[in-house]
Amino acid sequence: MHGYREREGQRLADQAGTLVDLLHGDTSYPPGSTVLEAGCGVGAQTVTLAARSPEARITSVDISDESVAAARARVREAGLANVELRQADMLDPPFEAGSFDHLFVCFFLEHVPEPATALRRLAALVRPGGSVTVIEGDHGSAYFHPDSAAAHAAIDCQVQLQAGAGGDALIGRRVFPLMVDAGLADVRVSPLVVYADGGRPEWAEGFTRRTFAAMVEGVREPALAAGMIDAETFDTGVRDLYRAAEADGTFSYTFFKGLGTAQR
């Protein structure tokens, strides 16, 4: 949905850097364990995953050759030696059942047309007793001050376009049932809330401006081409999202992190 442009790669890197502690604070894997990262993209999450579990063996996979090349460069630049990068379709994974000790899925299910089926196939690659971690966002959780009808309309364009491409930008609220339907045990889901205001300028810059507002701004042309919105309303909405990052503005967004256990 978001494409493979250089600007998008930078946005993902900005997002990952800002959210390191929030998303990965309780994620680590023991020495010698094998971890599959499904849909690694440009490696924005890969480097944190590998750095936090330096003695685990990470296999990171993406369908895009271009993204895998970018991820490989990012891993090399970080000096990480515990990552193997592969190009493959994770909807038809080239691995045997039970091949991995753990599965890490972050911002992947939102892009696939049948996330329940995809997660079921991925979970089958984990040995019984291994862990499955799923992290997804939910664009319906975005709220901000000053409030703006135009900004909500611009965000809705992103939601509609992703739905039209077979994805779900509101999938965060579905993490628990998706994991249960995938046959995982002991499923628990935690909301991870991003909150930015004038007292947390690093969050306003890293997430409000450089992650969320930039993402919405990036769908301007396809949204206008599809007749979803007029240019004036869209541009006003984007300006209002950036406005929420100013010293007297606030912005909040929720990610959902699920953890479950693979069964026989």
Give a description of the structure.
The protein has about 260 residues and is of the alpha/beta class. The protein has a single domain (about 5-260), classed as Vaccinia Virus protein VP39 (Rossmann fold). Helices cover about 40% and strands about 25% of the residues. The protein is built from 9 helices and 8 strands. Helix 1 (about 5-25) packs across helix 7 (about 200-215) and helix 7 packs antiparallel against helix 9 (about 230-245). The chain is globular. The relative contact order is 0.16.
Throw out a few tags for this protein.
23% strand; 8 strands; 9 helices; 264 residues; eight-stranded mixed beta sheet; alpha/beta; 41% helix
Nutshell version of this structure?
The protein is 41% helix and 23% strand. It has 264 residues and is of the alpha/beta class. Strands 1, 2, 3, 4, 5, 6, 7 and 8 form an 8-stranded mixed beta sheet that branches.
